[in-house]
Amino acid sequence: MKPQNPNKKKGHDDSSSEGNVPEEILGVMFNAEPPQAIPSMSSFQDDDDSGDIREYTGQFEGPEKTLEVCFRKKDLDGPALTEPGEKAGLRRLSMEQLGRICARARCTILSSVSNQYLDAYVLSESSLFIYPYMLVLKTCGTTTLLRCMALVIEFGRQLGLEIDWVGYSRKNFNFPTDQAFPHQSFHQELEYLYSHRNLCETLDGNGYSLGPLTSDHWFVFVADQTIRSRTLEVDTDRVLNMMMFDIDEDIAQLFQYDHYEKIEGEQKDDETKRISREQTLQSGINSLCPGAVIDPRAFEPCGYSMNAILFRSYSTIHITPESGSSYVSFETNQKVKSYKSLISNVISTFRPKRFIMTLMADEAGLKQMIENPFTGSGQASSIVTPAPREVSKATGIKQMMYKRGSVASIQVEEDCCCMMGNWVLKTDMSAQQIRASKTRGMSVS
Fold first, then answer.
1. Catalytic site residue 325?
2. Whole-number percent of the chain with pLDDT over 90
3. Which of 71, 255, 412, 433 is 20 to 30 A from 198 in CA distance terms?
4. Does 201 participate in catalysis according to the annotation?
């Protein structure tokens, strides 16, 4: 996460809504955001200096916008595009080209780690992951993520690649009026994708909304150009994302830069690296990604970002710890049969008061899962985690229960399944009630 103003105001409006939504639904009043018109074609050109730079307003949009673009070779039967041992496909993009992509989205590259399968970049505003035939870009705040699309497509074309699949998703904004074009509403984002002269023929996709319009919901755009008989690999795909709000205050304090001592004579870069490592260890983040190569980054005056890569998978964490509006995101594309232990460990690490979880997967990926946190009902939909030691001593309650409030799912395009759920910490549960639900809910023994 980019460094944030320590005097940021609390601005956590769960009732914010976007798009063409009536002002009153089921008798509940909320501030509906009217669709924003798209500027004329002559008024925006996606060059490297395009897009507004917004002044800091005292409030920060933590939940990220996420763009995933998959490519395929134009000629699968043609000669190899790289020599053995060389990086292939999109991994051949230069730092100058990646910098231009990020500039369009209004962010910069800070650091990177690589392995045999992918390159991972920590950004000033979240993360970028590059595989040979897939790019994943996550940006927070008032970044202009979609404005990099035309450049991504063009760079792919120069490498002999064509679009295979595109997915764009985000939670509804807490502060939609702070956003710059084309992100002032989901309606505007769709109009931008449909209307842009460089994208309209390539991105023949559709937009969807999951979740209650009067509360947290998730917007998804998918354009599927996949030629199933020509796929580069017989593979499955799934991405789990957790958006956590109002984390434990003691945990949040660990991500204040001044929480750590200064060493006289230490260079600034060395200090940042040291504090980044200390934040990772003291918070327990390192335990969430055992065996992975971790690239952490601490920000001043507060904030934290981390990428971790292990074989073909990535995990990423971004933290905005300001009191009153703290936020943490955790995302991974690990292909595991059950996310139960991972979900429990992430929640136990940050102890949020509520969280939203999303899963985007293909049908084959869902079939590989033996447990799905979105499909349970009643007590089985709850998630139980160990209580903090101080809570256990004071109350005798050794577990904490998160109760699911809503769940939504949809299958889009060919075989893309999208799921979203909301969970809230129950503070009025007795130890007996939690124990009774533990055997039926998601928990770790």
1. no
2. 57
3. 412
4. no
